[in-house]
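Chain A, query sequence.
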Amino acid sequence: MTGTRVPRDPPAKRVAEPEKTIAAGTRALVIGPYLSSRARQTAGQNGAGHVNLRIPQARLDEAVGLAAAIDLNVVQGILVALASPRPATYLGKGKVEEISGLIAAEEIDLVMMDCALSPVQQRNLEKEWGVKVIDRTGLILEIFGRRARTKEGSLQVELAHLSYKKSRLVRSWTHLERQRGGFGFLGGPGETQIEADRRLIQERMVRIERELETVKRTRGLHRESRRKVPYPIVALVGYTNAGKSTLFNKVTLADVFAENLLFATLDPTARVVKLPHGAPIILSDTVGFISDLPTMLVAAFRATLEDVISADVILHVRDVSHMDTEAQSADVTAILRDLGLNPDDHSRIIEVWNKADLLSEAERERLLAVAEHRPDEGRPVVVSALTGEGIDRLKAAIEQRLSGERPVFVVELDPADGAALHWLYKEAEILDRRSGEDSLITVAARLAPEKEPRLLKRFPGARRLR
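Chain A, predicted structure.
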């Protein structure tokens, strides 16, 4: 027999990442079954709940990106315009038969439907097509299982997965896969399976919720200890793949996992950064948002967004090179409102227009002009996290937001009093320093309001400017 031999990974690697190995060899078809423009318009006029108004091609591209995020071999992505979903198979009978022929011709192993399927719809489609069918929720859960690294992240993933699995138990017994990494449809060598019914799943969910409470308490203690420092917290939020982790790495000089993948970051990461005048802040990277995120996942990952809720400044990172950037921004602001935050609070939220390096020169100049003509308080910052363009402007904008309520004092020091000068540099932002004719050093310093009593105790003659 002749042919090209495909190099294979060593056994240890195959065992270490079974779900990744299997996914890489799975030929997948991604289907975007979206309401037609007329159907969306009619649904909107009738007030039929949330209607996704995003561009269908952008939605399909995102779905293909989700599948690629776990290394599925996406053979094709196809759009299907619907007048309304069918109760039995979501798609119409003719379209089901047409796709069945495509599956056979292309030797498809798995179909990903970019929608929420009911258990009945999923089962009927699998029966019609003879392949495994997953929906958007199942795929996102698989990605979450692959990306989560911390104890809390792993527990949150398993809890969401169990909730999803529980809703799909038709008879009283089924198989619930529990494996390191992915939880869902791929399986693989090395995993153990537990036969469980709804009662056993519920018991496991209760145990996980108890464990999560312990983990949350520990994170709460860490958060309290950070507040006692106290450094202001600046949190990055944005649509998935907007470039938050790349921006985080550029600002902090850290090495957080940052790839052109949807949901590259799931676990919150924090680093200390110094602003232009020397004031330290804690910069926190968070999970990316996405449209039509299932309710169970919003609830499960709310804990990972606690740093956002308590942040002094929030950086809303947008990919301005994306065709659907406005719709993505709307999805993020909707989730911020769900978290109890006001997206229009420009004293606390800064829009960061990222990926300027992907724009044409004319478009880049246009965006810079648009940003420049916005009021100071709500002015976005145009940056490229990849090249570093605009990072200094961003740090200055963060400093400006944080300084709004911080008092500024003028202190006169003896040049020989090195300890006092060291204290000021350590505890405050030095805005100006100059030596007078009387040899005294005059320092203008800005500091956190809670440090004001300590400064006045140490420097009784300090004068407050504002």
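The radius of gyration is 27 Å. The first strand starts at residue 27 and ends at 35.
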